[in-house]
């Protein structure tokens, strides 16, 4: 029996969503895909998948090999240039990341959150890193320090969305896969001002991340360190101190004012079904 008729424009929306789901298949580990793989992932016929791949090839987002397989097209690089040219805070962050790498001797990552994924947008080498996350690589937001520190300042509904979509995958025995446990962990992250990841993504590796805020006090990215557990246990307090200072200085330089007598900043809340930023007053100590 046919399903209910789609609302006007529903086909267009579904097509756009299919493009997004298709592009998710391209990773550093798997840079090429075939028609059969695309059709299986999208739950459509091979003919439909081939038509979508062909359309994306015509506009340069994909490139087709003579073998019939596809990779990302160089149009993506052009779009990336546009994006990076309008992300001026990345340069400021890199300067502070370079100082942090010099002080700690650890590799520093800069990550942002988009489309439900944590994406590495810059990296400064500071020493042998236990995790080889490339620029452009994605990280599970619930199982990594940069992902958690950004999620901590997003609407709770986004965490619920990850859980509802079955995306709280277990990577190690320490991975948080419970929605309630993750929400509690994010609350502790907001309270302490930085996120911790204790062997939740990669065995034997711990992480710490602090938020970067813009002039509106909105968390737009995170700076993080990933360190072998033994070294992290010995240096946790020192690493957290240097990291939070670097994130705070980056925020200050791009316009965030966090004076001791100022308000905490902006946090995402849902009002009348819409995600919006609201300012939360700083808690005053009771005298």
Notes on the protein architecture:
This protein is of the alpha+beta class. The chain folds into two domains: 10-77, Winged helix-like DNA-binding domain superfamily/Winged helix DNA-binding domain (Arc Repressor Mutant, subunit A, Orthogonal Bundle), CATH 1.10.10.10; 87-280, Beta-Lactamase (2-Layer Sandwich). It contains nine helices and ten strands. It has helices at 10-23, 35-42, 46-58, 75-85, 89-104, 145-151, 156-164, 179-192, 229-253, and strands at 62-64, 70-72, 108-114, 117-124, 138-139, 195-198, 205-213, 219-228, 265-271, 274-280. Strands 5-4-3-8-7-6 form a six-stranded antiparallel sheet, sandwiched between helices. A two-stranded antiparallel sheet has the order 1-2. Helix 5 (89-104) runs antiparallel to helix 9 (229-253).
Helix run count: 9
Count of the separate structural domains: 2
The biggest beta sheet, please?
A: 6 strands, antiparallel
CATH superfamily of the largest domain: GAF domain
Which residues sit in consecutive blocks of at least 5 with pLDDT less than 50? 1-6, 260-271, 280-287
Level-2 CATH architecture of the largest domain: 2-Layer Sandwich
Query: Termini, distance in Å?
Result: 69 Å
What is the strand arrangement across the widest sheet? 5-4-3-8-7-6
- By CATH reckoning, the class of the largest domain would read Alpha Beta
The radius of gyration over CA amounts to 21 Å
Instruction: Give me the strand/helix succession.
Output: HHHEEHHEEEHHHEEEHEE
At the third CATH level, what is the topology name of the largest domain? Beta-Lactamase
Q: SS-based structural class?
A: alpha+beta
Name the shape in a single word: globular
């Amino acid at each position: 029996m046919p399903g209910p008729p789609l609302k006007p424009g529903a086909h267009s929306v579904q097509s756009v969503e299919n493009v997004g789901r298709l592009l998710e298949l391209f990773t550093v580990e798997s840079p090429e895909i075939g028609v059969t793989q695309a059709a299986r992932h999208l739950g459509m016929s091979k003919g439909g998948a081939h038509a979508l791949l062909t359309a994306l090839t015509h506009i340069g987002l994909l490139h087709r090999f003579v073998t019939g397989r596809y990779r990302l097209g160089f149009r993506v690089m052009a779009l990336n240039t546009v994006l990076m040219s309008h992300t001026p805070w990345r340069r400021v962050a890199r300067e502070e990341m370079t100082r942090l790498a010099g002080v700690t001797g650890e590799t520093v990552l800069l990550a942002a959150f988009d489309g439900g994924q944590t994406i590495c947008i810059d990296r400064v080498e500071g020493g042998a890193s236990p995790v080889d996350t490339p620029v452009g690589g994605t990280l599970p937001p619930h199982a990594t320090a940069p992902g958690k520190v950004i999620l901590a300042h997003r609407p709770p509904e986004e965490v619920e969305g990850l859980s509802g979509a079955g995306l709280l995958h277990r990577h190690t025995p320490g991975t948080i896969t419970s929605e309630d446990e993750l929400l509690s962990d994010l609350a502790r992250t907001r309270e302490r001002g930085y996120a911790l990841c204790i062997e939740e993504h990669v065995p034997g590796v711990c992480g710490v991340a602090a938020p970067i805020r813009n002039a509106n006090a909105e968390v737009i990215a995170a700076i993080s360190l990933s360190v072998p557990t033994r070294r992290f246990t010995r240096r946790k307090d020192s690493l957290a101190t240097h990291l939070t200072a670097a994130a705070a200085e980056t925020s200050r330089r791009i316009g965030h004012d966090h004076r001791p007598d100022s308000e905490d900043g902006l946090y995402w809340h849902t009002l009348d079904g819409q995600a919006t930023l609201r300012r939360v007053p700083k808690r005053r100590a009771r005298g």
